[in-house]
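INFO batch 0412 | record 1 of 1 | parsing
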Amino acid sequence: MFNHHDISRDAFMLHGPLSHHGYDWWWHSFTAWDEITGEEKPFFIEFFVCNPALAEKKPVLGQLPANKEAGKLPSYLMVKAGCWGEDHTQLHRFFSLKEAKVYDGVPYRVSAGDCVASETLLAGSISVSKSAAEKHPEWMSDAGEITWNLKVDKQIAFNVGYGASKALRGAEAFAMYWHAEGMKSAYSGEITFNGRKYMVTPEQSYGYADKNWGRDFTSPWVWLSSNCLKSKKTGKMLKNSVFDIGGGRPQVYFVPLDRRLLGVFYYEGKEYDFNFSKLHLKVKTDFSFEETDELVIWHVRQENIHAVMETEVTCRKKDMLFVNYEAPDGSRKHNRLWNGGNGVGTVKIYDKAGDRLLLVDEVEATHIGCEYGEYDTEG
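INFO prediction complete | emitting tokens
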């Protein structure tokens, strides 16, 4: 059975050298519905731990000029939350890792103040005034207020396999690791954003939960995923399906590989696996990204010995934001990391029959989580 849940990969990973130079984050995204108007809105919540061995009494912010001058690397728990859409917002709240509680075991649990993240629960609040956001660029935050209280039900996992196995984690073979314990997740509860209340229901949350950790990020950085899928063959919603594509240019033992993506389509219980680290599948990937005045567009074609998957996604720029992170070394290389939660597109899946391709289905996808960025080349 494909559904390889492994909550040990969601555990806190910053041990040994990674505790001095590493990050670990738990990401969640989902759709909520305005309690009064019924309007839908996509949200995200993330708990990001950086350089725990360097913790001080207060969070150490790497973008603060005084810390840069003193050669201090960042160290904190950053709680990030916000929304996509025309009023797209990302809000940051920082805690010292001396005050945060990070459970070093399975299942994971991270908490500080009223903020908590675990396999089944998400709660917290962030409030950043306009004047504070302007006064503190090192926070990398917009202004706004958000509170949330949610239950998480992770239904289908994408386990990247050997690439994030204990052996390769221990050897720190990759600069960036990935595990999607809940690539199809159902969220329930409520969120209040800038005074408006939104309800989150399991059937219409179209939720996603994953985890990244390592010593550096990847460039280019690609992510596409949705479980709000409709079959063009039958005209019906696919209730037990999800696709997830991620990666870019992974580094193994500090040597960058060519552009590689990990991908999977879980189609009504059947797995189509396009994971380059599974050598016997002979995976080939072509991907491109383009920007027009109003849109960002992804084209991905993945092929293995059994099947072909072609994915095309667009998202409106006005609904997206540039997601902000600093790397464990204090640098900000990603300053144009497009990030959205309401992309639309199509996925075509084909079975191979000798030299022929047989169309299994063409699927309409909405509520697509989507990301693309390349490192700044200047400087």
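INFO post-check: The chain is about 5% helix and 55% strand.
INFO record closed
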